[in-house]
Amino acid sequence: MYTNKVLEHFYDPHNYGRMKNPDGVGEVGNPSCGDVLRLYIKVKNDKIIDIKFETLGCAAAIAVSSMTTDMVMGKTLNEALKIKKKDIADELGGLPEIKMHCSNLAEEALKLAIEDYQKKVKDKK
Questions:
Q1: CB count, 10 Å around CB of 65?
Q2: How far apart are the C-alpha atoms of 6 and 18, rounded to whole Å?
Q3: Whose CB has fewer CB within 10 Å in the chain, the N or C terminal residue?
Q4: Which residues constitute the domain of residue 82?
């Protein structure tokens, strides 16, 4: 059902945990399946220099969260915003159709974290 890449990220997730003093936080949930994802970012010179996540959910939700952090680390905010759910699923070698909603969570949480950061920067001006 899951690719080896999905299982690797599920059993040994990258960048897992809570971040102290994040610059931006995005949190999303899917009421139909119960998955919840919180994504934290640190930004310097318009680049994501650190990223962490906490996910309560299935193997696919955890793997997608982990892969997303790998994909956006070191990217500019604009580059990160270009990453879509299909890109994340493709990097994992695919997801079962019934689990594609998990990649929606990661894309949306990333977008919300960046928006949160940008709002904070704007509010400081």
A1: 31
A2: 22
A3: C
A4: 4-119
| Active site (annotated) includes residue 33 | yes
Question: Of 115, 39, 118, 26, which is closest to residue 71 (Cα–Cα)?
Answer: 39
Q: What six digits make up the tokens of 41?
A: 């970012």
20-46: pLDDT as tens digits? 999 999 999 876 777 899 999 999 999
Helix or strand holding residue 47 (H, E) = strand 47-56
Q: Which of 7, 25, 33, 100 is catalytic?
A: 33
Q: From the candidates 88, 102, 110, 113, which is the catalytic residue?
A: 102
The set of residues, in sequence order, having a beta carbon less than 8 Å from that of 43 and lying 6+ positions away, is 23, 24, 49, 77, 117
Catalytic annotation on 102?
A: yes
Residue 125 domain-assigned?
no
The answer to whether the CB of 51 falls within 8 A of the CB of 75 is: no
pLDDT digits (tens, 9 = 90+) for 54-95: 999 889 999 999 999 999 999 999 999 999 999 999 999 999
HSE, side-chain direction, 13 A CA sphere, residue 25: 10
* Domain total in the chain: 1
